[in-house]
Amino acid sequence: MSFGPPPAGFGPLAPSSWTPPSEVEQALLDAKSRDDWPAYFDALAQSRVYFEIQRDKVDARSTDIRALFEFDSRVAGGRIWAVYTEGMLPAPEPHRVFDWQPLSWFAKVWDPTDPPMIVVNPRTPCEAFLPSAPPHSHAWAQYTDRKKSPSDEAALRALRVGGPLHGPVAQGLACGAHLIVLRGLPWNALAYHGQGYPAEREMLSTYWGITSHQQWQVQQHALLSTDGANPVWEFALGLRRVIARDFGGYVETALWRDSAARVLRQRAEGEILLTPDGITKTEPVPAAETEARVNGVQHLIGRITRYEARMRADGILDEGQYVSSADAWDLGRASCMARWGVSTRYCAVPEAEAAVVEAGYRAARCYESWREFSAAFILGRCLQFDNEKFGSWYQDMVTVHRILTSDPGSPWLNIPFR
Question: Domain locations in the chain?
Fold first, then answer.
């Protein structure tokens, strides 16, 4: 099988002058250079295939969201359906947005009014012309159904071109690697399209309540504030830091629990505070409420120690090591939120870049290493969602942690944390 070159005079750039942006485009180029179309389609089938859609329809929550087609004079009639692999996506623009599907989808949804040709990565050395109508589409669609969906498993991926690999922006992007690697997306993509415009918008609306630039900005600032991912978590973890400093590092759980009870009961009697209005004393807290707080914090301490024991068993924490703060949970998500702002068009790339750099800067102030940051992120995620089930909320992070601490291409092994 051979699709051959496009008509004379319209060939792509010479491969020797072109660097494939990611391993996907590299695999497509290698397969095409060998005229190995099964390998080409196998590589494409394991990739997200993006295409432009109507933004106004998505924003209006229309059920009739259509693809936007392009013109290419190399094809009879000129109409084509241009599709892109992740490394070849155009830079985000306010009024131009994309969705993605696995390759087989394009054959399944074919309509007689669609263009007669799908062009993969137009005018690049790895482009391919795929006839879109049956029975011709069967030649390429057959390779895709037997492959896993591109979003099925965690994977470390990076852009060789178009994404930073070193420096402050890369360091800040690497702080969000847990969630990005979990989805098999390039960790260093700041010009981010993610899971496609509709899915990214739906995610921010459903899970974060964000439907505007202003709401995104408020949430971004909150995640970067490092006021504590959760004040109760930070109280407990901060108290242990103080005890460890005073008692030489190791903290017995019983001492930690007793100290928490003592501090909370002392505070319940009323505290002297220095405020902008002067020195004030807080009102005493009723005994029943105080004991409820004590029980809650002591229960939290038990949860933290059990998660840390499991993380030591799984190699996330070293023996005797503990989590000093859960701020990484917010800072890692702040790095991702910057990208989500770009993918949803709630912010532009420069604003996202500033947020990413700030996330990296604050992380370096809070932690000593990538491993320490990772353990803190995982603990925060599990305290919020896992409820000591040690299910996917935990197991997914163990998988990602191991990838990021062992893969030679990991940013955690190539970018200094501080």
Answer: 1-152, 222-405
